[in-house]
């Protein structure tokens, strides 16, 4: 599942491509992937042809003015007081191809022997065509993601944009703010705490493992057991690990693909995530994994206390 570094990569790479682009047409190939208005998109979505056609006709002739991110939501602002919200959820992909490269073949899955495909692929459900001939494709193997069109007035009512903790890379997210948050859920295991979107936005299974390795703290440690030095290292880990991951365009674990069709390379730098049974890159001890509260945490039993 894409986490903050992957969604931020999508936003940063799409921003120069999409800014000032005018939408010529939108084709919705799977109506349940799109929605209108601020109500929560349920997983029990039905195929609403009429919603899909309103979605497409409202977007027609609109110009994209800005693209940003809040937690894991992509926010595409449109002239005419509309915003298009895109949530990639488990396997959503946004791929942009300019007019000259529409026949580019892209590997949509980061697994061995996968073949490169031309878009639209089987998993392409929404296609945006711009007036300059370029296209934006929304693919989603597992169909958990969505694209939702809201007016600027409806934006504050969107449930999926509320109740998030602070943005960890925001300058305003200081050590003091971080320390205050540690008093919430003090008995929780630190891995669950760090993955709680109400505490800090955008951190999931991959980056919680990597941040805990950076801080030399085991995932099962109770929040309240952390020593002052460990708290400081954890705060540093949040900043350093997420910033490095963005610098490497995220981790292409399974379905994450950059908007240009390339893979993110941070996966090669993972110290513990996905490395259970392999040697620790620092001390050579075998990386262990542990299941707790429905999640698997991987860690080095020697480096992490
Ligand atoms: Zn180690």
Automatic annotation (TrEMBL):
Entry keyword annotation includes DNA-binding: yes
InterPro entries associated with the record: DNA_glyclase_Znf_dom_DNA_BS (IPR015887), FPG_cat (IPR012319), FPG_Glyclase (IPR020629), FPG_N (IPR035937), H2TH_FPG (IPR015886), Ribosomal_uS13-like_H2TH (IPR010979), Znf_DNA_glyclase/AP_lyase (IPR000214), Znf_FPG/IleRS (IPR010663)
Key words, A-Z: DNA damage, DNA repair, DNA-binding, Glycosidase, Hydrolase, Lyase, Metal-binding, Multifunctional enzyme, Zinc, Zinc-finger
Domain FPG-type: 271-305
Molecular function GO labels: 8-oxo-7,8-dihydroguanine DNA N-glycosylase activity; class I DNA-(apurinic or apyrimidinic site) endonuclease activity; damaged DNA binding; zinc ion binding
Gene Ontology biological-process annotations: base-excision repair
Cofactor(s) named in the record: Zn(2+)
Domain of life according to the entry: Bacteria
Coiled-coil ranges (or none): none
Signal peptide: none
CDD domains, sorted: EcFpg-like_N
All copies of domain Formamidopyrimidine-DNA glycosylase catalytic, residue ranges: 2-145
Reaction it catalyzes: 2'-deoxyribonucleotide-(2'-deoxyribose 5'-phosphate)-2'-deoxyribonucleotide-DNA = a 3'-end 2'-deoxyribonucleotide-(2,3-dehydro-2,3-deoxyribose 5'-phosphate)-DNA + a 5'-end 5'-phospho-2'-deoxyribonucleoside-DNA + H(+); Hydrolysis of DNA containing ring-opened 7-methylguanine residues, releasing 2,6-diamino-4-hydroxy-5-(N-methyl)formamidopyrimidine
Alphabetized SMART domains for the sequence: Fapy_DNA_glyco, H2TH
NCBIfam families the UniProt entry points to: fpg (TIGR00577), PRK01103.1 (NF002211)
Similarity comment text for this entry: Belongs to the FPG family.
Record's subunit section: Monomer.
Name of the protein this chain belongs to: DNA-formamidopyrimidine glycosylase
Protein species of origin: Candidatus Doudnabacteria bacterium RIFCSPHIGHO2_01_FULL_45_18
